């Protein structure tokens, strides 16, 4: 068993309609799966925080604001080679990206990404008997 849960890190902009549409899915992941979701706001911090809070105060508490700069630079630095939203990645407990997804997040996709990350981590660190 892993000592910590992977983190689903979702990049968010108020100008991204698909990003806004996936907020209820992310809130459901937190509520039903106990997932750890971090939303990285890449522009319009005040508006974005309000939109996230309106859907889920729990998500808003986990939201962070990206470093100042262009949103696509933030996305490139996170591993999104095209710098296009929506984009998400799953981070291992040590902070290493172990799965990524470009497109609107669904419950099925989020669970599959976390499972992929866990599989990769457990295959590198087999349990001892």
Write the layout of secondary structure elements.
Elements (H helix, E strand, L loop, with lengths): L6 E6 L4 H5 L1 H11 L2 E6 L3 H11 L1 H6 L1 E2 L5 H7 L9 E5 L5 E6 L4 H18 L5
Parallel strand pairs: 1-2, 2-3
Antiparallel strand pairs: 1-4, 4-5
SS class: alpha/beta
Q: In angstroms, what separates the terminal alpha carbons?
A: 13 Å
Counted beta strands: 5
How much helicity do the residues have? 40-55%
What pattern of helices and strands is seen along the backbone? EHHEHHEHEEH
CATH homologous superfamily designation: Glutaredoxin
- The low-pLDDT segments are none
- CATH third-level topology: Glutaredoxin
Largest sheet: 5 strands, mixed
* Overall pLDDT confidence: 91
General form: globular
Strand content: 15-25%
Treating each run of at least 4 consecutive H or I residues as one helix, how many helices?
Answer: 6
The radius of gyration is 15 Å
CATH architecture group name: 3-Layer(aba) Sandwich
The tally of domains stands at: 1
Strand order of the largest sheet: 3-2-1-4-5
CATH class: Alpha Beta
């Amino acid at each position: 068993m892993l000592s910590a849960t992977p983190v689903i890190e979702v990049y968010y902009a108020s100008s991204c309609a698909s990003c806004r549409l996936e907020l209820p899915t992310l809130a459901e992941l937190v509520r039903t799966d106990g997932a750890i979701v971090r939303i990285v706001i890449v522009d319009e911090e005040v508006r974005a925080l309000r939109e996230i809070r309106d859907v889920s105060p729990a998500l808003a508490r986990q939201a962070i604001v990206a470093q100042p700069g262009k949103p696509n630079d933030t996305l490139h630095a996170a591993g999104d080679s095209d710098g296009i939203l929506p984009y998400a990645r799953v981070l291992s407990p040590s902070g290493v990206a172990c799965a990524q997804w470009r497109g609107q997040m669904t419950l099925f996709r989020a669970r599959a990404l976390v499972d992929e990350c866990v599989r990769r981590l457990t295959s590198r660190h087999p349990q001892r008997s």
